[in-house]
Amino acid sequence: MARHEQAPVTELFPPQGQWTEADYFSLPEINRYLELSDGRLIMPPHPTRSHQAALEALYVRLRAFVAERDLGEVHVAPLPVRLWPGRISNVGACLRR
To answer: Rounded distance, CA 29 to CA 27, Å?
Structure first.
């Protein structure tokens, strides 16, 4: 039986420094936060408890402020947000109009 050489999984993806927004958004859903910065795929650490507590407090206040003024919707979750071209970060809360 002939053995077939398999390409390393890293060859299926762009090298660091060459990732595009299209590459980033074509990735499958996984149970990790991934961010894009200057063509590099970044896996930041999981949020700490103090970070989550601060996010919860911010969400409660922001949601009340937005609801009172009918400004849109506030969402809390790790959501990919395009901060500027080539920089996509997962933010904990965001306002959508």
So the answer is: 7
Structure tokens at 20: 């595009």
Residue 61 makes CB contacts below 8 A (sequence gap 6+) with none
Cβ neighbours of residue 16 closer than 8 Å, sequence gap 6 or more: 39, 40, 41
Pairwise CA distance, residues 36 & 23, whole Å: 10
Count of CB atoms within 10 A of residue 90's CB? Answer: 16
Tell me the C-alpha distance between 61 and 66, whole Å: 9
Query: Whole-prediction pTM value?
Result: 0.71
What tens digit of pLDDT does each residue of 44-61 get? 988 899 999 999 999 999
Which residue's structure tokens are 């071209």? 85
